[in-house]
Write a structure and sequence with these properties.
about 100 residues; alpha+beta; Alpha-Beta Plaits; four-stranded antiparallel sheet; about 30% helix
Length: about 100
Amino acid sequence: MYIVDSIVTVPEHKADELIEVYRNRSRSVDKADGFHSFQLLQNDKKPGELTVHMEWLTKDDYLKWVRSEDFKRIHELEKKYPDQELANIVPKVNKYKVVAE
């Protein structure tokens, strides 16, 4: 298993707006080879901190996704998001290999 967490921090008054964006996401990643799951997590103590948590069967599956045309298309759309405060967010990405369960 391979896990990728993308952590973003937005002003607290924008958190619900970003949550709604993810609730209405395209779900194209769900069809990618090796995709296992997606969750959007909200920090309990810092509501403006959100983590996109994705699980993949292998690192190679994840790398195929990030190199895909679908990935590029989705991330280009994010740059065109009407709310520039949200469009300019740069996530902190952490990647993990599951070593024990």
